[in-house]
Amino acid sequence: MTTMLNRGDVLVERIYFGGALCQVVPARVLRHDADELVVWVAGGTPVLRRRGRSGRALRDVPRVEWPSELTPAEWTGSGVVRRYLPGVDHSVWWFFADAGPSGPDSFEGWYVNLERHRLWSDGTGAGIDVVDQELDGWVTPDHAWHWKDEESFAAKIGDPGFFDAAEAALVRAEGERVRPVAERAEFPFDGTWCDFRPDPSWPLPPRPGTAAAGRPPALRVGAEGAPADDAGERQDGVPVPD
């Protein structure tokens, strides 16, 4: 049995990085079926975030200096559409220029976030757990591909909070698989969602609480110890189990 979420429902994105839960973000569902999950994170959305001193990104801070707590913050910019697929180790994000209080303006480009993810549901609601794998791709509106964070990605190979060399090779291979799709302007890089504007009646969702942040991760968050299903294989499907 699976439960599909409805347009306008709110789920919680929990983003893990370096073996730690680093962001808890409420997102509004745009589409959910057996083939895909598409969500919207509006600018100004109240979130929980782990940040280095003086607001530095965690990738630039030694792990021993990472703060132990998530703190209240807001999602900056005009918002982002994110698309997740079952069994696929990346998500695609649509970024828009910021038109201020009126929300998103013109489309700025696609972000290919290389990751592992898994949906979950329990008595507190539904969410998706994401393990960020550091290396990403940026695709301009004219479909030029640019790698992001290559030096930081290479520096993290062998770190038990991230990935070993074998998994790092799979991460890059996933990006190389997506790259020609983007460069050929094939779906989803074909203009789909590029004119998206959110329903003006949707309020910002509330900031996630301790229950959402404290739930055990639904998938492996470091280089070892992957959870397994009955067949001994990892499952990264989009349908939310009852």
List the SSEs and their pairings.
Blueprint: E1 2-3, E2 10-17, E3 20-32, E4 37-42, E5 46-49, E6 71-74, E7 79-84, E8 90-98, E9 104-122, E10 125-139, E11 145-148, H1 150-155, H2 165-183, H3 210-214, E12 240-241
Parallel strand pairs: 2-10
Antiparallel strand pairs: 1-12, 2-3, 3-4, 3-5, 4-7, 5-6, 7-8, 8-9, 9-10, 10-11
Walk me through the structure:
By secondary structure, the chain is mostly beta strands. The protein has 3 helices and 12 strands, in the order βββββββββββαααβ. The strands form 2 sheets. A 7-stranded mixed beta barrel has the order 2-3-4-7-8-9-10. A two-stranded antiparallel sheet has the order 1-12. A hairpin with a 2-residue loop joins strand 9 and strand 10. It is globular and about 45 Å long. It starts with a strand and ends with a strand. The C terminus is likely disordered.
Helix content: 10-25%
Largest sheet: 7 strands, mixed, barrel
- Mean pLDDT comes to 87
Instruction: Please give the radius of gyration in angstroms.
Output: 17 Å
Quaternary structure state of the chains depicted: single chain
Number of helices: 3
Estimate what percentage of residues fall within beta strands.
Answer: 35-45%
For the record, give the distance between the C-alpha atoms at the N and C termini, rounded to a whole number.
7 Å
Element-by-element helix/strand order = EEEEEEEEEEEHHHE
Poorly predicted runs are 225-242
How would you describe the shape? globular
According to DSSP, the number of beta strands is: 12
Biggest sheet strand order reads 2-3-4-7-8-9-10
What is the SS-derived class? Answer: mainly beta
